[in-house]
Amino acid sequence: MSTSLTVRDIDPADKSWLKRESRQVGVSMEEFVRRLIHEKRAKTERRPKPSEAFARHFGERHGVELLASARRAYRPLTFSTEDDE
Question: Which region holds residue 9: left if phi is over 0, alpha if psi is between -120 and 50, else beta?
């Protein structure tokens, strides 16, 4: 399953740079662009927050009720008994 991508109105200087770089590496321009895109995606993939990782592994599907996030301040836990109500 291969798809083709056409870039229109590319700057001639950019195109000549792509040709030079791909020639140095020894691959086609298309393969060189694929590698650039793959490298860029790998660098920009963000790591999940600890809370996201926790939710993924221990979330509601697994019987754990997650607390709502407190945005700006620490929210201490409060315990109540039946007598307090």
Answer: left
Tell me how far the alpha carbon of residue 23 is from its chain's centroid. Answer: 31
The whole-model pTM stands at 0.49
Alpha-carbon distances of 85 from 45, 81, 82, rounded to whole Å: 48, 7, 6
Q: What is the mean pLDDT of residues 55-80?
A: 67
What amino acid is encoded at 7 in this protein? V
Listed residue (75, 73, 69) closest to 55, CA to CA: 69
- Domain-wise residue ranges, the chain: 12-62
Looking at residue 49, its pLDDT comes to 82
Phi, psi at 80, each rounded to 5° = -125, 155
